[in-house]
Amino acid sequence: MHNLQQRANILFSFACTVLGSLLAVIAAISYITGYPTVPSDIQVDNNALRIVSRRYGPDYYDYGKPKSDFARLTFDLDVDFTPVFNWNTKQVFATVVAEYETKTHDRNSIVLWDTIIQSKDKANLKLRNVPNKYAFIDVSRKWTYQQVNLSLHWDITPYVGVLQGGKSSSNPVNIILAPVPAS
Q1: For residue 137, what is the DSSP state?
Q2: Got the DSSP string for 34-72?
Q3: pTM score, two decimals?
Q4: Per-residue pLDDT tens digits for 167-179
Q5: What torsion, rounded to 10 degrees, do the Cα atoms 96, 102, 107, 110 define?
Q6: Which residues contact 104 (CB under 8 A, 6 or more apart)?
Q7: Do 132 and 160 touch, CB atoms closer than 8 A?
Q8: How far apart are alpha carbons 178 and 183 in whole angstroms?
């Protein structure tokens, strides 16, 4: 016969095995069913698009460093994330990303704005005149008439399972960033 400690250990092991199996089934179902695509609309106010030149980084006070060109813009965003919320959706992390190519780098991606949506009630976003939240600067520190595409990306965090992401299926917004005029 088994003593009380051995019986408790067997019961605990069985419960952990059942729970792990159940969570694996939930993760597999969530991965197989997937999430729908989300239509979105991004509009950039070209009148508010500005290129400014200033020092950047932790040594911004070091006058030996050259200035960098920053792009500042505002955009309107209309997107409804309610279709992606189901019984296994914990939160949605949405970002507006600027993508462009240069002579030295084939693919450049810069996150301009982000938000975390934690409930279905707050999943319908209709935002107006949103400024970029993060620095919009090129690695070369100068804009040279790059054509930039703005698009919406998102990552869905489930309670159980694999993190899944997506990108807006609508056409990206195209803008051109010219260098700062010499003064």
Answers
A1: B
A2: ------EEEEE-GGG-EEEEE--STTTT-TTSPPEEEEE
A3: 0.80
A4: 887 666 777 776 6
A5: -30
A6: 139, 140
A7: no
A8: 15
